[in-house]
Amino acid sequence: MSEEAQAPAPAKFALQRIYIKDASFESPSAPVIFTKTWKPKIQVDLNTRSSKVADNNFEVILTVTITAKLEDDETAFLVEIHQGGLFLAEGVEGEQLGQLLGIACPNMLFPYLREAVDSLVVKGGFPALALQPVNFEGLYRQAQQKQAEQQAASETTTH
């Protein structure tokens, strides 16, 4: 048998498409909110999820929910974006696939998510909102550690 026949196929990873799966913007207190002093408290919730779409094709969704409230706890705006991406991952499995879907893919999607958030906020009549960079590797490692701790805790309670 030749060496070429024995060598595994090289791994392939490619971005197929980027899209907005869902977007919403609410400003429940407009236009009164524009007459108040703009010193908002901003809360940002960020999540990722992935799923297999077809052979070697995976959808990764990066979701952000941002709430801006003024000092009197009045909501200035609420924006939610589900930034999607379709990725090809061929010849990649296990932990390596998990890292691609949990770190590399969200890193690729984040600039698009960031722009969509800024665009909606500005179109809503508010000052530009630039999301700070995110360490997706750190978030991935935290999620892995938390999952391992939960699994260990459930194993000790069942024994």
UniProtKB/TrEMBL annotation:
**InterPro entries found in the cross-reference section:** SecB, SecB-like_sf
**Gene Ontology cellular-component terms listed:** cytoplasm
Q: What SUPFAM superfamilies does the record point to?
A: SecB-like
GO annotation, biological process:
protein folding; protein tetramerization; protein transport
A GO MF term = unfolded protein binding
**What is the annotated localization of this protein?**
Cytoplasm
Q: How does it assemble?
A: Homotetramer, a dimer of dimers. One homotetramer interacts with 1 SecA dimer.
Q: Which HAMAP family match?
A: SecB
Tell me the NCBIfam families matching this sequence. PRK05751.1-4 (NF004393), secB (TIGR00809)
Name recorded for this polypeptide: Protein-export protein SecB
Q: Which organism is it from?
A: Zhongshania aliphaticivorans
